[in-house]
Design a protein that fits this description.
This protein has 795 residues and is of the alpha+beta class. It contains 21 helices and 16 strands. It has a six-stranded antiparallel β-sheet. α5 packs antiparallel against α12 and α5 packs across α13.
């Protein structure tokens, strides 16, 4: 292959304009002509990787001094031509320059470093290094590879970690253990709610009892102050009523007698008699209706008037509406059962029309979708839960109040009917009186005068009786406010109640206040317990929905499908399977993904640890503290195996340790070589080898490693750089002989040995004759013309 380099260095750097095209050649040249720089440049072009440490001064000098350049390689085994064009000053600060070439082409077609690697590889074997430094540089190179590789996989690993994290989030937070715990929490919350409910019920009952006791005491004291006077007034009214009734009866009897006598004498007055009889009958009905209405008014603690009735009906209806609303809010189970029954019937009808699998509920926030059948099943489950659910104690108190209010409304309706009867009989009596008034003028003057007088008196007494009945009802109402019970009965009830409460009478006000305070706290505790229970029940419902949704995701085609395949050893349940079975599979997926995340994290950190260990081994080989901890021992063994292979190369054993009986091993930690010689264990420090021995061993071993490569490029340039000063002449000749023999077996390789100029070929030519003289003169002319000479050993 032909290699041409065109460069215009910006400083004192020099670079060879070409490399010889020969399967094996030796290039000898003066110092400073750019032999090594040319090889380094070829390494950059073929690998895209810096041959120096990125932070080193050598790399900075290379980038800033080389400048614009082009490299052309032709005559490859595939007859291809490769060309690179770039400016090295743009590379500073980069450890991967593969994307910074201005132009890379193969046979004129734009190409990449990856394409180049398929055609051509450049290897540089340095002879100016000690064996220990060579080993250290092997560790440096491995560290650089690991660092670059870690950098290249950092983004993919981070993406995988992100993906795995998202999958873990999608799997949800529910496990068998956590679900069991929340069920235990719900059971505990239900127990707490039951206890709080019982405590509130007891507190409410105690407040009710104490309230009754306080009311009895108040009524007893008020009765003692007021009741005797009321009873006296009622008795006085009743005496007047009795007297009026006696007088009214007497008047009625006289009026009827006169009317009958007049009717016998004059048949025309028969209408008067009949009118008076009808009036009497309706008066009796009116009196009875007034008594009934007055009694109902007293029972209802109302004045026997239309205004009082209407106000009471309005008030009790408002109370019923308010209590009904409170009942529903406190104990919604009955209303919810009715609602769920209605919705369930409609959903069942939808299933009958083929809508079973249609989405009926879609909640994007919870990522929850339920079909018609699933919603109906869920409603049925909730319906069963609500069946027979007892109302809370506050609701039971409201129910009692509601029953009392409805009972009062019924009694008000009866009172209204009584008032309607009073009004109806008042109208009848009024018409009867008008009838009597029309019939009276038919009587003779003497009878007429008496009848009119008696009739007027009767009407006065009738009106007074109605007024007295109303007065009596009002008094009875006032008395009923006091309980309508005798003092001894109230006293007996109060004493019994205080005994049940184990309470002294004088302690009643304080006990009532404390009970009300305790009731407030009990109601507050009950509300908090109810809220906790409701929250946990929501969590349980959300858990079940989350688990079912995740189970569906594992079995469906989509982002989580691969998890289902990864769990192929575990049968994926349906979302209708028992929840524990679903949780077990999801838990298995959790463990698997968590292990993946942990492994990815370790993989990322292991890169840094391995790179640190490689740096540590390089430091250790150079006589410094390794500093690293992880993987040092493992890498020491690995490098020991690699270095041992070098020393076990046949040519190296023959030159360095010809008397070794068995395998030679290298201990990197102890920095020594060990072998058996005539059955005795021998060892030798790496430092004890001469520079020539080290360079020879290194070169032969590296060539052996290259020869063992499985995937070889069709074109390889192997450069043995800076060997003359370190390998003795006898060993150099042995090495050259080895290279001659090797060239026949490796036609894909082009080997170049670079040596410093150590001969004055012009002087040597003067003392030589024949062919040697011609060769020496040719070398002297090359050196004079281009400051280096090339000897082709195998074309």
């Amino acid at each position: 292959m032909q290699i041409q380099i065109e460069a215009r260095p910006l400083g004192p750097l020099k670079v060879l304009p070409y490399l010889p095209s020969a399967r094996l050649a030796i290039l000898e040249g003066l110092n400073g002509i750019g032999k090594t720089l040319a090889i380094r440049l070829l390494q950059v072009c073929t690998t895209g990787v810096t041959p120096y440490r990125p932070e080193s001064q050598a790399w900075a000098s290379f980038c800033s001094g080389l400048g614009p350049f082009s490299v052309t390689v032709s005559g490859l085994r595939s007859n291809s031509t490769i060309k690179w064009v770039a400016d090295s000053t743009t590379w500073l600060g980069r450890d991967d320059v593969s994307e910074l070439f201005d132009h890379i082409s193969i046979d004129g077609r734009s190409s990449t470093i990856k394409d180049i690697r398929q055609l051509l590889v450049v290897h540089r074997l340095a002879g100016d290094e000690t064996l220990i430094e060579t080993l250290a540089q092997q560790a440096d190179g491995a560290e650089s590879i690991v660092t670059r590789w870690a950098s290249s996989v950092h983004v993919p690993i981070s993406r995988l970690e992100t993906l795995a994290g998202e999958v873990l989030h999608t799997l949800g937070e529910w496990t068998v253990e956590r679900h069991s715990q929340i069920l235990q929490d719900m059971e505990a919350a239900e127990t707490s709610f039951s206890q709080a409910s019982h405590a509130a019920e007891m507190a409410i009952d105690k407040v009710r009892q104490l309230g009754t006791a306080v009311d009895l005491l108040r009524r007893l004291e008020q009765f003692r102050r007021t009741a005797p006077n009321l009873r006296q007034q009622i008795e006085a009214v009743e005496v007047i009523i009795r007297n009026h009734k006696v007088e009214l009866e007497r008047l009625q009897t006289r009026i009827v007698a006169l009317a009958e006598e007049a009717a016998r004498r004059r048949p025309i007055l028969l209408e008067l008699r009949n009118a008076q009889r009808t009036l009497k009958r309706n008066r009796l009905y009116l009196s009875s209706a007034v008594d009934t209405a007055s009694s109902l008014a007293a029972e209802l603690e109302l004045a026997p008037t239309r205004e009082a009735l209407e106000a009471a009906v309005f008030a009790v209806r408002q109370q019923i509406d308010e209590l009904t609303g409170r009942q529903i809010s406190m104990h919604a189970a009955p209303a919810m059962r009715d609602l769920l029954d209605d919705v369930s019937r409609k959903l069942l009808d939808g299933e009958g029309r083929g809508l079973s699998d249609q989405i009926a509920l879609d909640d994007p926030e919870l990522d929850l979708q339920l079909t018609v059948s699933e919603v109906r099943v869920g409603i049925g489950t909730r319906r069963v839960q609500l069946e027979g659910q007892p109302p809370p104690p506050e609701a039971r108190a409201v129910v009692e109040q509601l029953e009392d209010a409805r009972s009062r409304l019924e009694r008000l309706k009866a009172f209204e009917e009584g008032m309607d009867s009073v009004d109806r009989y008042r109208r009848l009596v009024g018409k009867n009186e008008e009838r009597v008034d029309r019939a009276l003028p038919a009587a003779n003057p003497q009878v007429l005068a008496e009848l009119q007088q008696l009739e007027a008196r009767r009407r006065v007494i009738d009106n007074e009786l109605l007024e007295l009945a109303t007065e009596r009802a009002v008094l009875c109402q006032q008395l009923s406010i006091l309980g309508g019970e005798a003092p001894d009965v109230i006293e007996s009830r109060l004493t019994a109640l205080l005994s049940d409460l184990d309470l002294a009478r004088d302690a009643l006000p304080t006990a009532s206040a404390k009970a009300q305070e305790a009731e407030g706290k009990a109601r507050l505790a009950l509300g908090e317990a109810r809220q906790r229970l409701a929250a946990i029940r929501r969590d349980v419902a959300r858990a079940e929905a989350d688990v079912k949704r995740t189970t569906r995701s594992l079995g469906a085609s989509g982002a989580l499908r691969w998890i289902g395949k990864a769990l192929s050893s575990t049968r994926l349940p349906s979302d209708g399977a028992p929840l524990r079975e679903q949780l077990e599979v999801i838990g298995h997926a959790h463990v698997t993904i968590a292990a993946v995340i942990e492994r990815l994290g370790k993989h990322r950190t292991q890169h840094a640890a391995v790179a640190s260990a490689l740096r540590g081994i390089a430091r250790q080989l150079r006589g410094q503290d390794a500093e690293a901890v992880m993987y040092v021992a493992e890498l020491e063994r690995w490098f020991g195996d690699q270095f041992s292979e070098w020393f076990n190369s046949e040519s190296v054993r023959k030159e360095l340790l010809p008397d070794a009986d068995d395998q030679i091993s290298v201990d990197v930690r102890q920095m020594e070589v060990r072998w058996l010689e005539k059955g005795r264990e021998r060892s030798r420090p790496l430092e004890a080898f001469s520079s020539g021995e080290q360079a020879f061993a290194y070169t032969r071993a590296r060539l052996g490693v290259l020869d063992q490569e499985i995937a070889k490029a069709p074109n390889r340039l192997i450069v043995l750089d800076e060997f003359g000063a370190f390998i003795a002449h006898d060993r150099l000749s042995v090495l050259v002989d080895y290279l001659r023999k090797r060239a026949a077996d490796h036609p894909e390789d082009q080997v170049l040995v670079i040596l410093p100029l150590s001969h004055d070929y012009a002087s040597e030519a003067g003392s030589s004759v024949g062919k040697p003289r011609e060769n020496l003169e040719h070398l002297a002319k090359q050196i004079e013309a281009q400051r280096f000479a090339v000897r082709v050993l195998a074309a």
